[in-house]
Amino acid sequence: MARILVVEDSPESLELMAYLLEAAGHSVTRAATLARALAELRHTALDAVVCDLHLTGASGLDLLRCVRSEPGLADIAIIAVTAAAGLDLPLRARALGFDEFLRKPIEPRSFARDIERALRRSVERVLSERRSGTADACGLAG
């Protein structure tokens, strides 16, 4: 069971993602804003963040930068979710430091499995960085 923060400004999408993750046995914390997400990250032990790329007044990229630059948070898996179009978005999201990229509308039957796969990739990333000693101050391999 993972502890997952879902950051989404659409109440319907937030509740759907949280419901699917809880049904798969995960503990879910909800946040509708960047400020609330950062407060939860700083005060709650979490394994992953599922974050909409386009939040009201902020972006998932803002959250990514904050998390990756804070000691103690840089190892958390961050999964981007968006309805934005663009064939290259998954590659760009991973290049920026997201552990996984999912398109909306999410696929309810595979959503929890997709998040679990991202958690495994994150663990592999962190272990690889620690073995090679290539993590920079933001926690990204260099």
* N/C terminus separation: 31 Å
- CATH classification, class level: Alpha Beta
Low-confidence stretches: 136-142
Shape: globular
Strand order within the widest sheet?
Answer: 2-1-3-6-7
The CATH architecture comes to: 3-Layer(aba) Sandwich
- Total DSSP E strands: 7
- Helical content, roughly? 40-55%
Kindly report the average pLDDT value.
89
Alpha-beta classification: alpha/beta
Order of helices and strands: EHEHEEEHEHEH
Number of domains: 1
Largest sheet descriptor: 5 strands, parallel
Per DSSP, the total helix count is 5
At CATH level 3, the topology is Rossmann fold
CATH superfamily: Response regulator
- Sheet-strand content, in percent, reads 15-25%
What is Rg? 14 Å
Task: Report what the structure shows.
By secondary structure, the chain is an alpha/beta fold. The chain has a single domain, classed as 3-Layer(aba) Sandwich (Rossmann fold). The protein is 44% helix and 20% strand. It has 5 helices and 7 strands. A 5-stranded parallel β-sheet has the order 2-1-3-6-7, with helices on both faces. It has a two-stranded antiparallel ribbon with strand order 4-5. A hairpin with a 2-residue loop joins β4 and β5. α2 (34-43) runs parallel beside α3 (60-69). It is globular and about 40 Å long. Residues 136-142 have low confidence and may be disordered.
